[in-house]
Design a protein that fits this description.
The structure holds 2 protein chains of 2 kinds.
Chain A: H1 3-38, E1 44-47, E2 69-76
Chain B: H1 18-35, E1 38-43, H2 50-58, E2 66-72, E3 77-83, H3 92-107, H4 111-126
Helix pairs in contact in B: 1-4, 3-4
Classes of the chains: A alpha+beta, B alpha+beta.
Chain lengths: 77, 138
């Protein structure tokens, strides 16, 4: 084995392994930061699926289509 | 729709990440399963305060049976709008309790955690008593 090849093996293999390990350890962090910053910039609206029908209420007890808000609160911090 | 109020960082709150969005979506679905009512979350500017929140609530799919939690991190404002049909089971006192829990977390800088806790609390309060033979037909 030539000296150049020996030095290449003894240095090249550990360095390559180190780079691969660093990339594997850091990849989740890169992915997290990419997804966290890429979608900011506007209002966020999330909704659940449609309300379930309530069999314990008569249709006459339910609010007419025109009425919407029936309560709630405001708060500041 | 893009997610998160960009001014959340300015207000000292941690912005809503993609993971938070997934988690909050799960919480909204859980809240609907617990209570049977629809739940919605809005994070963004509320220029007219409660008026803007009521307008957002009115634009939802079934507003009379839906609870909207609206937060403006910039204005440090929280609005809970309860639909007419939900108001029978979820009174303003319960909303105040949930609002207090949420604003405590917001003040500590954790927007997503406050929302998660508050929405689950609202759903627990909105849960109507089970009716034999109606909720569990034989």
């Amino acid at each position: 084995m030539s000296p150049v090849l020996a030095v290449g093996l003894f240095l090249g293999v550990p360095i390559t392994l180190g780079i691969i390990l660093y990339a594997l350890v850091s990849a989740p962090m890169w992915l997290r930061s990419a997804s966290g910053t890429g979608e900011e910039g506007g209002p966020l609206l999330l909704t659940s699926p449609r309300p379930l029908p309530d069999p314990s209420r008569l249709p006459s007890e339910l609010a007419p289509a025109g009425s919407l808000a029936g309560g709630g609160v405001s708060a500041r911090w | 729709m893009p997610g998160g109020d960009p001014t959340a960082i300015e207000s000292g709150l941690s912005p809503i990440t993609q993971a938070d969005r997934r988690s909050l979506q799960g919480v909204l679905e859980k809240a609907r399963t617990i209570s049977g009512f629809g739940f919605a979350l809005y994070v963004g500017p509320l220029p007219d305060g409660r008026g803007s929140a009521i307008a957002e609530h009115g634009a939802l799919q079934d507003p009379a049976s839906t609870v909207l939690v609206a937060v403006s991190p910039t204005a440090r404002q929280l609005e809970i709008v309860v639909g007419v049909n939900v108001a029978v089971d979820l009174d303003d006192r319960a909303c105040e309790l949930a609002a207090l829990s949420m604003t405590s977390s917001f003040a500590a800088g954790d927007l997503a955690a406050g929302l998660r806790e508050g929405i689950v609390m609202l759903a627990e309060h909105a849960r109507h008593p089970r009716v034999l033979h109606l909720d569990d037909p034989a």
